[in-house]
Design a protein that fits this description.
Elements lengths: L4 E4 L2 E4 L1 H21 L3 E5 L5 H9 L3 E6 L14 E8 L5 E8 L15 E5 L9 H11 L5 E7 L31 H10 L2 E9 L9 H7 L4 H7 L2 E8 L38
Parallel strand pairs: 3-4, 3-7, 4-6, 7-8
Antiparallel strand pairs: 1-2, 1-5, 5-6, 8-10, 9-10
Helix pairs in contact: 1-2, 5-6
Amino acid sequence: MRAAELIVNGERIDAARYERFHHRRIELTLEALRGLGAGQIVELGGHPWVMTSALLDDGGFEIAATVSAEEVTNWPDDIGVTRRGYRMQTLAGREVLFPNYSANIERTRFSIEEHPDTVIACEIIEHLVRAPHNMLLNINQWLPVGGKLLISTPNGAQFSNPLRRKSGRPAYRCNVYARHNGALTLDQLVDLAELCGFAVRDAGFWNVYQRSGPSRVYSVIGALPLSYFKEKFQRTIFLTAEKERDVTQLPRVPNCYVPSPGWENIQHFGDLSPPGLETEE
């Protein structure tokens, strides 16, 4: 097997570019999981399997299951839930087997056979189109009280270069979940997790991606010991939490949602707008 190549169910995956770009984020994720005492992990969004490989090659964790849709959909459809065994040859050459659930994590509420102590959703929530609370309600259902959660996602409050001539939004893609469809601030992510039954243990900013050219100065500014500079110049936010209670329905609309009676799995008590979010621009 060539360097930085995975084999999943007999398919060779060239992971070199992804592994180089995300190397520091993966390191920090493993470090955070060790701090949580994670053991049996369910990983959301396995593809392209680099994080899965890193978890397995670390030696300190076991993959209870992954949740990664096998069907690439052009629209945010309900694709049902299927479970089947996956075979992987990791970047370190280990042969491993684990179950994968193929499902739309924000569209379908479903149970799993496994009993994880930790669920991770790294660089997943920004791809969701409509209802990230449903993803978190699924996670709540799978974990016992005291179970651990780790989320990382691009920082929705980060500075936008005023000299940039291209749109700051990702280009449209024919497959709906291939692009970044949303961006949360740290406060919004904390609010969403707490509403879904989790007590936040730690939350903050990671500076994990190398910049090039003049934009390298942003990394220097982001390292300054003031919260404003971290919020505006660090590119990734993270959150670790413990499940505090069972939740099947949110008590109110999250701060990152526009209020509407059309939301499922959310209680409605009149038209109460969350602070700082009125209508779409």
